[in-house]
Write the structure tokens for this entry.
Amino acid sequence: MARKKIEPITSLGSEDKLTVQKSLPLFALWRSELTLAEFKILDTYLSRIDSHKPEKRAVMFEKGELEKILGVKKINNQDLETRLKHLMGNVIEIPDESMKKGFRLVTLFEEAVAEQDDYGLWQVKLECTQKAMKYFFNIENLGYLRYKLRCITSLTSRYTYIMFIYLEANRFRKSWDVPLDELKQILDCDKVETYSAFKEFNKQVLKRVQKEMLEKTECRYSYEPVKKGRSVVAVHFEVETLPKASLEEVDENQMTLEQWQEEAVKEKELWQTPLEDFNFTQEQYDELFSVLITIPDFKLPQSSACYGSVELMRYHYIDQKAKEIKRRDTQKPIRSKFSYLLKLMKQDAEE
């Protein structure tokens, strides 16, 4: 039987209007060997698909669009081919909670078709693989975060991109400490001898990253070293909460019903998303959160899908409790799901 032709999605307008919706497993790609240019291509692809329409997984980058994304006037044939081959051939490890041991390796894209016009501008069609579709489409159960495409297309440093992703994934925590060695691993500079001294790491990486982030993104944060004796052992981060109005400007004429629903989801904190069906009030969410932050980390899910992030641990913890409540509710109706959840959480906090 012949394979059904997949019509590519063409441009949806200015990148100022586009939002990247990235499933949590894809945040693990900071560990991959993808270059900054390849991250930009991936994020642009994510911003162009409708996550509820897997039948439309082919995206067409129109003439001149790829050059704009990568911040160059012209891409030569060999450079483009090298970038696309690396993006398509890069085998990545995806965290999978359904597996107790072992690992899952996938490739993200199965086809790239590039054609150059007489003026040297490229038109590129990109299509994700069948196996990777679960990380691109209908990702509500996986959890996801969103950010404006324009925040990353103008970046010039891979360090800045990875820091931006890290801060967005941990924004919910607002304030936290990360061990210095762990931060260097996240930024993939732990093996650079020059950065073994915090003074150089701070000067060459952290300060430059913060400067570029301030100039080109909407992410505002501060950091300071945490010392033990005379040695820096960790870095303390504080991320500012931006007004909702500044987080996303949307062209109402281009929004589908699904996108309107996603907008409502976006305004909730990550840990709240599994509780949407319960219609809790903000006061109830506040009370739940006051208990959630007292639950010891060892009581939270520790799987690789959490990437060591407390925010993701709390998300998966609440997701498990929500599923448990729904299951028990089918067996015997629960009169107050809020009280029931609060009781379960308090038990974990007090034990």
Summary: The chain has twelve helices and ten strands.
